[in-house]
Design brief:
The chain is α+β, with helices and mostly antiparallel strands. The protein has helices spanning 2-21, 38-53, and strands at residues 107-111, 118-126, 135-137, 141-147, 150-154, 167-168, 173-176, 182-185, 191-199, 203-205. It has a domain at 92-205: Jelly Rolls. It has two helices and ten strands, in the order ααββββββββββ. The protein has a five-stranded antiparallel sheet, with no helix packed on it. A three-stranded antiparallel sheet has the order 6-5-8, with no helix packed on it. It has a two-stranded antiparallel sheet with strand order 3-10.
Length: 216
């Protein structure tokens, strides 16, 4: 009995010593310092390094524009500087042909200069019965019949028996290729034609030309 009391007293004394020395309240394994605060910074730094090391050809493409969003303005194309086209306004009463001797076909220039480079427009009046002298142009032309019935014939000599001209009324359109001899006949009445072409222009009489004839 005395031995049991001695052991009890001994353990109580040892426990008191340990308790007051702070050993019981201290854990046997101390925890490691937490690094949760540093982990997001490390991941962010790693992502930034990965973006910097991605090859240029493998970079992520941009998203397409939303439907209805206007496309960005493209770069303006390179254009050459040319003189500005003049503003010309001519009413029918402003366009007058000069007086010419019988058998002549006066021509006026409405735009440009046939002797220079660039676009030009002329208008020709052919009196009733006149056949223009067969001629050749150095430039290809386009012709519009503005009034009357125009007979356009290709050839160096006029021969009514051999040539069957086709009548082209007002509003008709035809071409005059460069180097092709031709002439116009105002068989049924006065004719006005308008010519458009690119200069410089030139006119030569056909080798076997025939003179104009006036038929009442």
């Amino acid at each position: 009995m005395a031995r049991t009391s001695f052991l009890a007293t001994f353990f109580v004394a040892v426990g008191s010593v340990l308790l007051f020395s702070g050993q019981i309240g201290r854990p046997f394994v101390q925890p490691q310092p937490q690094r949760a605060v540093q982990q997001p910074q490390q991941r962010q730094t790693a992502s930034a390094q990965q973006r910097q090391t991605v090859p240029q050809g493998q970079q992520q493409t941009t998203m397409p524009p939303r439907p209805g969003t206007p496309p960005p303005n493209p770069a303006p194309p390179a254009v050459s500087v040319t003189p500005e086209m003049p503003a010309i306004y001519l009413l029918p009463d402003d366009i007058r042909f000069p007086d010419m001797p019988p058998g002549a076909s006066p021509t006026i220039t409405l735009f440009g200069d046939p002797r220079g480079e660039g676009l030009y427009v002329t208008r020709t009046f052919i009196p009733h019965g006149v056949q223009t002298i067969p001629h050749i142009h150095s430039d290809s032309r386009t012709v519009t019949v503005l009034s009357g019935v125009c007979y356009y014939i290709r050839g160096e000599v006029f021969d009514e028996d051999k040539v069957k001209p086709i009548p082209m009324p007002s509003g008709s359109f035809f071409t005059e290729p460069a180097g092709v001899p031709h002439y116009i006949w105002a068989k049924d009445g006065d004719v006005i034609v308008q010519t458009t072409a690119i200069g410089p222009s030139g006119t030569q009489l056909a080798p076997n030309r025939a003179v104009n004839t006036v038929r009442p």
